[in-house]
Structure formats: C-alpha cells, structure tokens
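Dear colleague,

Thank you for sharing your sequence with our group. We've completed the structure prediction you requested, and as agreed, I am returning the results in plain text so they can be pasted directly into your records. Please verify that the sequence below matches your submission; if there's any discrepancy, let me know and we will rerun it promptly.
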Amino acid sequence: MPQALNVERTSLTRRHWLLISASVLILLALASVFRFAGSWLTVQDPLQPADAIVVLGGHLPFRSMEAAAIYKQGWASEVWVTRPAPTVESKALEKLDIGFVPEDAYSVRVLIRFGVPSSAVRVIDGDITNTEDEVRATVRTLRETGKTRSILVTSKYHVRRTKIIWSALAPPDLKATVRFTPDDPFDPKRWWQNSSDALAVTREIGGILNAETGFRIKPRRP
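Please find the predicted structure tokens below.
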C-alpha cells in the first residue's frame, strides 16, 4: 500500500509541475504578444506611384504633413482629405451659434502651408465617422475619377487596421499603399508606458477584431 501511495504522489507531483510549466509558458507567450503588439501594428508599405494621396482623419497636423512630404517627392499629383460627418459636439456648438472649424479645413491649411498647391487638394465627403467610411469614400472617389491607385496616410498605430479594412472593403482592381507619419509621438516599443499609447493599441486591436468578424460593431451616428 505505501508503495502505491508513493507512486500516486509521484504522479500527482509530475502533473503539478507539468501544469506549472505549461502555465509559465503561456504567460511568457502572452507577455511576448503584449510587448510586441505596438510593433505589430506599426507596419507600412513601400512607396509606389499613385493617382492620389489620401489623408485619413485624425492626429492633426502630422498626417497632413506627411502627405505633403509624399506629394513633394512626386509620388502622386493630388492630395485628398476626408471630411468627417458632423458630431454631437459640433451640432451642439451650432445650436449655440458658436463657430466650429472642421478637421478637414485644418488639414487643407497644413497641406498648403507645406507646399501643396490648393489646385491639387480635394476634399472627399461621405458621412464619414470611421476608417471604414473613409475607405468606402476613397473607393467611390477613385471610381468617379477613373483612378486606381492611392496612398493612404495615417498614424503609426493605425496602419495595420487600415490595411485590413482596405483588403476587406476595396475591390481587387483598386490598390492602396498605406503609410504612417514618422512625426507622431506613438512609441511602438514602449506603448504600455503611457495612457495615450495604451489606449491607441487597445482601440486598434478591438477595431481589427471588429473588421475580421464582419464589422458587427457599428459607429454611433449623430
């Protein structure tokens, strides 16, 4: 009997250590994924000639600054700026008779300030509230103008999600090169050390999951 008990105890001890070892490996794998999440999001395509550079909304003035730099390098002959839909806040300001300057107006000013002629700037509309709307508006404008290639300019943390959304929504004959602006302050290697970067990574991963599952979560429309 004692020998049988010893065998059982040995078996339990082995199972115990196997469970601990497996748990440690899982934790190490999760820690690795956690650490490199920012770098995984920050991926961009090599520049290629295009018909238009598209400034995606957000993160003023950095995206417009990068779009202007790409334009001046000769990669495209036009720069398009997406126009966001009115928000609850902007509508409230209108009711208070307080002037509200939309983001696209500032983007255009930045482009001109950095040397893009106003004749090369186009504002595209389409009730835009998120990146999915921006991709759809870009696709529609490419179709309307008979163009096929674009360069989408966004922030470091937003590149991978933009690429995934483009692949999901754009027809295969329309091409997009996705670039980030090097001047934005997002740090992909230490993103967990400040709340702004941590929130950006969390939001992007949630957005990628939403895109991969068919855009089941919809934006709130004002």
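Summary note from our side: DSSP finds seven helices and five strands in the chain.

Kind regards,
the structure core
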